[in-house]
């Protein structure tokens, strides 16, 4: 099973913040459901406010129904609604119960808007609310800030994560006696009335500049201030993850990126077919007369919102305020509640501009126990319009530019940058987080968590691991026992040493690896922008064509393989790599390597009259990568891109030298890879990857392109899951990989699947290539033969006859953790030891 690293880092971050979750905390719940109807007409009343405490409640849906599950209820429940007399009833705490309400009219007129219970089926036709929404959509280009030629503003952003559901019972647990000082910082949420404890805080001060043509928006980050578990997680990497979860929300866009998903905006061009709209009343906001529209998705499980939309009561129909949250039935994981509020103002009598943005998310892995409360608030001020800046302000590819010293601002800077002072609890977060990390009990707890999640155990300046690579096995080496480690930043921030040793009990051969990474700038070796040099020497094995992206191949779960996997390469590899991030999305690496490859198992380097014991190659590999506005998590030994809407281009050139360090062959390889994600809401998104390669020169099959194959039972996104190791080789090829994630669009309409929150995904993978006569032993005498199976039949082929194609259909989000795919191979079904169908599993945690 494959745990991709971005997912792993999300798990790590939240697991660390949830370090007390393992205590098995639980408490009795009060569960209430019911219906609210008009006492006279007996028609259901939607959008009625239901409260079980001063700050905790919900609203009824279009059927007048509601449900609440909470630990924080009082012994009263109240239903209140404009135009009706409020009604209060008693409840029984810690029990499940049904409480219905009959509300009586209070005979209040609502600014000439007559509210009548809708006895007919909802329709867009002749619906005045839909007509208003269509006017909002028609005027989007005129009202959105991008209609201006130039603008600029100051931006202040604050992101906080808190542990919530903090109770006296929980605080009095015996294992928390050494942590009692942290509970001095517990506060009560004004949103849901739950006690919470801040554990992470980040604030950012920026200046934003916009130019309409050519379209450019630049955010210059002047100051950042962040406190977290710096000794256990990479704050810079976690910052990228948080930015990906809480992306900028522009209500005027058709799709809203949120929690790594795409939601349909209530003023999207297709909003009338996704949402139901009703005019509710008129009101006044900041001196502007508005019409309030209530909206709700037609399908409650879709990635869409419910809430209130306030638009100006004039021909412009501009959004002045919006309040949005989500339906209980939404196909979204680990989110109990979500609330978004945005307010706009008519700045300089020219344009409606966003002045404040707030988002609050109640995270929880289950319905009980400690949860997480995430808050982001942004203030926009000091707008200036149509004042062009010098061209250097708009230059470059990156949208976000970190100013020098942004993370070293003093108290005086933040006193000026903040629109309002931090609360007492927010100020205390900085001191509390630093203090808790010095408590021995906390350190011991974190060491266990990091061992389970990251696979390493720290012993001062050395980390021993990874745990999942300690034991693995295969048909050739048998049981592999491995022990390794690396230095951490307690040893040095600029230098990292790493290595391991392992022993195969079947082949009785000891293997090993040793390496070092050195930072060439004033950053640590894993901080961006990276500028490093890495040297490594390795004696190891690999299955030709087996490439696991961001996953350690020496993994116990990946040891289980289908079919025949008895052809192995032993290799001695020495390499030196120079890597650099150049900015503007450009990075490069140049690697000098010498590689000796020896056949193992049933693999042989056979010619017509003799066999060769090894082949040696000496290469210079130059790689250029262009990923505009890319964000990524950068860890000690890898760099994981966070996929965005921007394309990624990679160009790789290999130059092989003959007679250099005993190398046998000279050749050139050139390959290009293009990746792009397309957002197709409400149909989810699709990933497209196009790759092509060409080899120039005459080489034996181990130096050809050995296409990525997967014989494990894990679904590998970038590999061919029904292709055997070393089944296909090429010296020229082109491939296409497409995956469409529907995110439950179809399953949300099927009752059982909707309840289980399954999500559908389909894929297509195809590759076409060939081997020139000078590299094909069936066409040219005297060349190294292609491998054969135990019966002497050829088991390695070219792709000249037709492309290799496989397709799959999968169900994702099973138990919120697993994806299961049925994969079908469509071509080359007569090759030996192949399967037409296969089931593959992938571990993937996502919102």
Kindly identify the CATH topology of one domain.
Answer: Porin
In the CATH hierarchy, what is the superfamily of one domain?
membrane protein fhac: a member of the omp85/tpsb transporter family
Indicate the low-confidence ranges by residue numbers: 1-27, 108-119
Report mean pLDDT, rounded to a whole number.
85
Percent of sequence in beta strands: 35-45%
How much helical structure, as a percent, in the residues?
10-25%
Tally of individual helices: 11
Computed structural class: mainly beta
What's the gyration radius in Å?
30 Å
CATH 2nd-level architecture of one domain: Beta Barrel
Q: What is the level 1 CATH name of one domain?
A: Mainly Beta
Q: How many strands appear in the DSSP assignment?
A: 46
Protein architecture, described:
The chain is mainly beta and 847 residues long. Helices cover 11% and strands 43% of the residues. The chain has an 18-stranded antiparallel beta sheet that branches. Strands 9, 10, 11, 12, 15, 16, 17, 18, 19, 20, 21 and 22 form a twelve-stranded mixed beta sheet that branches. Strands 1, 4, 7 and 8 form a four-stranded mixed beta sheet that branches. Strand 13 (255-258) and strand 14 form a beta hairpin. The longest helix has 14 residues, at 440-453.
Topology (SSEs and partners):
Layout lengths: L4 H13 L12 E9 L10 E3 L5 E3 L5 E6 L5 E5 L6 E4 L5 E3 L2 E3 L24 H11 L1 H4 L6 E15 L3 H4 L15 E2 L6 E17 L4 E12 L7 H11 L9 E4 L2 E4 L6 H4 E11 L2 E10 L8 E7 L6 E7 L9 E13 L3 E13 L7 E15 L5 H4 L5 E3 L8 H7 L6 H13 L3 H14 L3 E3 L2 E3 L6 E4 L3 E10 L7 E10 L4 E11 L11 E12 L24 E17 L2 E16 L3 E2 L4 E2 L2 E12 L4 E4 L4 E4 L5 E10 L9 E13 L5 E12 L8 E2 L22 E2 L1 E10 L9 H6 L2 E12 L33 E11 L3 E8 L11 E7 L4
Parallel strand pairs: 1-7, 1-8, 12-22
Antiparallel strand pairs: 1-4, 2-3, 2-5, 5-6, 9-11, 9-21, 10-11, 11-12, 13-14, 15-16, 16-17, 17-18, 18-19, 19-20, 20-21, 23-24, 24-26, 25-26, 26-27, 27-28, 28-29, 29-30, 30-31, 31-34, 32-33, 34-37, 35-36, 37-38, 38-39, 39-42, 40-41, 42-43, 43-44, 44-45, 45-46
Helix pairs in contact: 1-10
């Amino acid at each position: 099973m494959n745990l991709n690293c971005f997912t792993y880092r999300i798990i790590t971050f939240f697991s660390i913040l949830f370090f007390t979750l393992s205590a098995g905390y639980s408490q009795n719940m009060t569960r209430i459901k019911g219906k609210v109807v008009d006492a006279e007409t007996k028609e259901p009343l939607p959008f009625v406010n239901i409260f079980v405490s001063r700050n905790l409640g919900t609203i009824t849906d279009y059927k007048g129904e509601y449900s609440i599950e909470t630990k924080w209820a009082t012994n009263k429940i109240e239903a209140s609604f404009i135009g009706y007399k409020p009604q209060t009833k008693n409840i029984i705490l810690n029990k499940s119960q049904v409480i219905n309400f009959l509300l009586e009219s209070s005979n209040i007129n609502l600014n000439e808007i007559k509210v009548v219970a809708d006895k007919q089926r909802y329709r867009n036709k002749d619906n005045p609310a839909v007509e208003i929404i269509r006017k909002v959509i028609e005027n989007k280009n005129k009202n959105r800030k991008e209609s201006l030629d130039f603008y600029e503003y100051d931006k202040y952003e604050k992101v906080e994560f808190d542990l919530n559901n903090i109770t006296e019972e929980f605080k009095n647990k015996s294992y928390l006696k050494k942590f009692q000082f942290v509970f001095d910082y517990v506060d009560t949420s004004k949103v849901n009335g739950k006690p919470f404890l801040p554990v992470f805080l980040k604030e950012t001060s920026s200046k934003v500049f916009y130019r309409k043509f050519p379209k450019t928006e630049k955010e210059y980050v002047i100051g950042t201030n962040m406190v977290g578990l710096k000794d256990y997680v990479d704050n810079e990497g976690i910052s990228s993850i948080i930015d990906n979860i809480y992306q900028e929300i522009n209500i005027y866009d058709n799709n809203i990126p949120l929690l790594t998903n795409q939601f349909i905006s209530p003023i999207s061009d297709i909003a009338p077919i996704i949402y139901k709209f009703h005019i509710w009343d008129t009101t006044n906001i900041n001196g502007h007369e508005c019409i309030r529209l209530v909206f709700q998705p037609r399908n409650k499980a879709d990635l869409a919102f419910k809430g209130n939309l306030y638009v100006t009561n004039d021909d412009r129909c501009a959004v002045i305020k919006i309040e949005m949250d989500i339906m209980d039935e939404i196909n979204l994981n680990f989110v109990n509640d979500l609330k978004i509020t945005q307010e706009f103002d008519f700045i300089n009598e020219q344009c409606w501009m966003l002045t404040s943005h707030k988002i609050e998310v109640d995270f929880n892995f289950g319905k009980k126990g400690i949860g997480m409360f995430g808050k982001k608030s942004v203030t926009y001020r000091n707008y200036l319009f149509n004042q062009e800046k010098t061209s250097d302000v708009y230059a470059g590819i990156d949208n976000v530019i970190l100013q020098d010293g942004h993370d070293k601002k003093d108290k005086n800077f933040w006193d000026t940058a903040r629109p309002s002072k931090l609360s007492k609890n927010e100020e205390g977060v900085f001191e509390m987080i630093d203090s808790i990390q010095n408590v021995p009990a906390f350190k011991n707890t974190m060491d266990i968590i990091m061992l389970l999640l990251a696979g390493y155990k720290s012993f001062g300046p050395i980390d021993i691991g990874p745990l999942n690579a300690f034991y693995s096995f295969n048909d050739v080496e048998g049981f592999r026992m491995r022990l390794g480690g690396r230095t951490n930043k307690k040893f040095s921030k600029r230098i990292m040493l790493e290595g391991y040793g392992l022993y195969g009990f079947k082949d009785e051969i000891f293997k090993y690896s040793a390496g070092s990474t050195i930072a060439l700038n004033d950053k640590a070796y894993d901080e961006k922008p990276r500028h490093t040099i890495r040297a490594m020497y390795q004696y190891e094995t690999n299955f030709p064509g087996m490439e696991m992206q961001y996953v350690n191949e020496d993994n116990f779960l990946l040891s289980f393989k289908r079919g025949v996997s008895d052809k192995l390469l032993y290799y001695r590899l020495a390499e030196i790599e120079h890597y650099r991030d150049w900015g503007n999305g450009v990075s490069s690496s140049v690697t000098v390597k010498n590689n000796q490859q020896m056949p193992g198992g049933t693999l042989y380097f056979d010619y017509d009259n003799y066999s060769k014991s090894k082949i040696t190659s000496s290469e210079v590999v130059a790689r250029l990568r262009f990923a505009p506005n890319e964000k990524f998590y950068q860890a000690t030994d890898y760099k994981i891109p966070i996929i965005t809407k921007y394309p990624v281009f990679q160009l790789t050139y290999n130059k092989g030298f003959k007679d250099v360090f005993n190398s046998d062959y000279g050749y050139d390889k050139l390959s290009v890879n293009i990746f792009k994600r397309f957002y197709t809401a409400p149909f989810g998104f699709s990933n497209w990857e196009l790759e092509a390669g060409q080899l120039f020169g005459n080489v034996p099959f181990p130096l050809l392109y050995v296409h990525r194959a997967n014989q494990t039972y894990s679904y590998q996104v970038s590999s061919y899951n029904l292709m055997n190791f070393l089944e296909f080789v090429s010296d020229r090829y082109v491939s296409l990989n497409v995956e469409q994630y529907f995110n439950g669009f179809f399953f949300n309409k099927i009752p059982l699947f909707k309840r289980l929150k399954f999500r559908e995904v389909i894929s297509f993978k195809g590759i076409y290539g060939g081997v020139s006569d000078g590299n094909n032993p069936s066409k040219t005498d005297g060349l190294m033969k292609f491998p054969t199976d135990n019966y002497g039949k050829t088991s390695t082929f070219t792709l000249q006859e037709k492309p290799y194609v496989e397709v799959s259909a999968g169900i994702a989000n099973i138990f919120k953790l697993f994806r299961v795919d049925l994969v079908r191979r469509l071509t080359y079904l007569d090759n030996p030891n192949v399967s037409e169908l296969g089931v593959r599993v992938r571990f993937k945690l996502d919102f």
